[in-house]
Write a structure and sequence with these properties.
By secondary structure, the chain is of the alpha/beta class. It has ten helices and twelve strands. The strands form two sheets. A seven-stranded parallel beta sheet has the order 8-7-6-9-10-11-12, sandwiched between helices. The chain has a five-stranded parallel beta sheet with strand order 2-1-3-4-5, covered by helices on one side.
Length: 319
Amino acid sequence: MGKRICVVGCDLGPEPMNYLREQFPEFEFLGYPRNAKVPDEVLASAEVLMNYGDKSQIAPAKNVKYIHTISAGIDGYIDEVDRCHGSSLPVSNGAGVYADAVGEHVIALLMAVMHGIPASVENMKEKKWPFIPMLGNVNGKTAAVLGTGDIGSNAARIVRAMGAKVLGYKLHPCEPFEPYDEIYTGEDGLDAILGKADLVLICLPGSPYTKNLIDARRIGLMKDGAVVVNIGRGSILNTGALMDALKSGHIAAAGLDVTDPEPLPPEHPLWDCPNVLITPHISGLGASKQKHAEWFAENLRAYIEGRPLPGAVNREMKY
């Protein structure tokens, strides 16, 4: 009898792949680069599929029994799984692996826009040395972290270490926990936290509950001169309302790793808004490939042993 097949459609690299082969000798791991065309017959042979949110690989994997995506955001992905294979197929994701990489990217965007780095880069091109106004320091500010999972909490620890008061917002009520000074929940809690914050760090996942969550009304609740960073999903933050607030000066600056739409078309007016820094959804690319392999191994072992997957996705919340 041949080995069980696991198709890996993402760039893990040689060492993480060897780690998986050592951990699971009963499996044959067939690796393909991210965005490569995996032959349908190979996908059809897979008992297990691991990829980076590539929805095109889901339907051809017609005999798959378990799917793991290293992507943390699965909105849209899980809908395709359910459409092709039904909602009982076990699915896990990479939530938790991105805390360091994406949490640090939050801080990179925040510090860049507060300290005038984008304008300085433009001035370098023209060899200019003008005065660039700063937006102040993190020390002494109040930061609202929307989304208190691994990513948001890593960013919260950093800004707290820099001297900020840190408020956390999560969808469901809970007791206060480190590193947050206070926790807010619910519709009223979201409205309240936005009015208290100098810095608004959006680290929520994409889901039906977070789409257009920060709309024009809620942007209006923010302090004049607030700084906004979004690494969650572009659909969480209303693009038109954000542009209006940037142009009026109500929002002093924004750092965005995600946009709506995405990719952002060349003709989109957000590119030309004042005091906005956009990175092309790259915040998670620095996540450790070895950590991805180890987290997948935990979940694969649970699948083999018939235990609940530690990284099982919540199909209702879509993360």
